[in-house]
């Protein structure tokens, strides 16, 4: 099975940098996804990692270490609109199950002035 | 582009009633999924489909049925609603298998269901 851990809440200041961690224990691994979800809205895709290292997309970067079962999402130059829940999701090794993702419970980020 | 469309947005049911949550996508995606989201529980997979005519159970399938007669539509049926099924339901679709890019899931806006 899959077990995914994320901090429940984080608070950061506008303009700062914040790192949201995700650790996972899985029976198989074939990629890790990050989604953003604003209150009352649908999750939207941010990034994915399949190999170790850092993937950068503008103000957002995601890092993966498969040997440590660890990922983080780095948000730079925080803006008020970044206040949202950030979901970490793991994709298991394909066994014909296609797009089955296991999601963490999400980290609620609050950006303050 | 409409993307993934879910209807209704809100629904209140009485215990024992049945209903169908509708989901349609116009992106010609092969894979479609239904999740429920509850406070402190994260998104949990109910049922999924890898193509028309093919469905399978996810993590929490009890009390729900699905069918996939076309590529576009993936309805979720609640057979006899229970208060434990009060939740927010999301439908998602992705292009297919292979590279991770093809597995990016696109979510509908959700259906907020209350069972009294």
Set down the secondary structure blueprint.
The complex is a heterodimer of chains A (113) and B (116).
Chain A: E1 2-5, E2 9-13, E3 18-26, E4 32-37, E5 44-49, E6 53-57, E7 60-65, E8 70-75, E9 84-90, E10 102-103, E11 107-112
Parallel strand pairs in A: 2-11
Antiparallel strand pairs in A: 1-3, 3-8, 4-5, 4-9, 6-7, 7-8, 9-10, 9-11
Chain B: E1 4-7, E2 10-13, E3 19-25, E4 31-38, E5 42-51, E6 54-57, E7 64-66, E8 76-78, E9 87-94, E10 106-107, E11 111-115
Parallel strand pairs in B: 2-11
Antiparallel strand pairs in B: 1-3, 3-8, 4-5, 4-9, 5-6, 7-8, 9-10, 9-11
> What's the helical proportion of residues of chain A?
under 10%
Number of helices, where a helix is a run of at least 4 consecutive DSSP H or I residues of chain B:
0
Give the structural class of chain B: mainly beta
What about the largest sheet of chain B? 7 strands, mixed
- Overall average residue pLDDT of chain A: 92
Shape of chain A: globular
Strand content range of chain A: over 45%
Q: What is the terminal-to-terminal distance of chain A?
A: 41 Å
- The total of beta strands of chain A comes to 11
Radius of gyration of chain A: 14 Å
How many H/I helical runs of chain A?
0
**Which residue ranges of chain A are poorly predicted, with pLDDT under 50 across at least 5 consecutive positions?**
none
Helix content of chain B: under 10%
Return the average pLDDT of chain B rounded to an integer: 94
Description:
The complex is a heterodimer of chains A (113) and B (116). Chain A is mainly β and 113 residues long. Chain A is built from no helices and eleven strands. The model of chain A has no long low-confidence stretch (mean pLDDT 92). Chain B is mainly beta and 116 residues long. Chain B is built from no helices and eleven strands. Chain B has strands at 4-7, 10-13, 19-25, 31-38, 42-51, 54-57, 64-66, 76-78, 87-94, 106-107, 111-115. In chain B, strands 2, 4, 5, 6, 9, 10 and 11 form a seven-stranded mixed sheet that branches. A four-stranded antiparallel sheet of chain B has the order 1-3-8-7, with no helix packed on it. In chain B, strand 5 (42-51) and strand 6 form a beta hairpin. The termini of chain B are far apart. Chain A binds chain B through residues 4, 30-31, 33, 41-45, 48, 50, 87, 89, 91, 94, 96-106, and chain B through 30-31, 33, 35, 40-45, 48, 50, 56, 58-59, 90, 92, 94, 96-97, 100-101, 103-110.
């Amino acid at each position: 099975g899959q077990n995914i851990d994320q901090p429940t809440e984080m608070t950061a200041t506008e303009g700062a940098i914040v790192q949201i961690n995700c650790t996972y224990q899985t029976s198989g691994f074939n990629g890790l996804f990050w989604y953003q979800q604003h209150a009352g809205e649908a999750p939207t895709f941010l990034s994915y990692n399949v190999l170790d290292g850092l993937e950068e997309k503008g103000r957002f970067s995601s890092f993966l270490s498969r040997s440590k079962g660890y990922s983080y999402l780095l948000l730079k130059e925080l803006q008020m609109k970044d206040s949202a829940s950030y979901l970490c999701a793991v994709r298991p090794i394909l066994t014909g199950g296609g797009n089955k993702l296991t999601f963490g419970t999400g980290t609620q980020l609050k950006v303050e002035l | 582009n409409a993307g993934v469309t879910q209807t209704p947005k809100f629904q209140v049911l009485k215990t024992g009633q049945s209903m169908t949550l509708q989901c349609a996508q116009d992106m010609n995606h092969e894979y479609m999924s239904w999740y429920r989201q509850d406070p402190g529980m994260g998104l949990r997979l109910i049922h999924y489909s890898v193509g028309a005519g093919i469905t399978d159970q996810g993590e929490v399938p009890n009390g729900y049925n699905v069918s996939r007669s076309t590529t576009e539509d993936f309805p979720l049926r609640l057979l006899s609603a229970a208060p434990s099924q009060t939740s927010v339901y999301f439908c998602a679709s992705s292009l297919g298998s292979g590279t991770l890019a093809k597995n990016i899931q696109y979510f509908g806006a959700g259906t907020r269901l209350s069972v009294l």
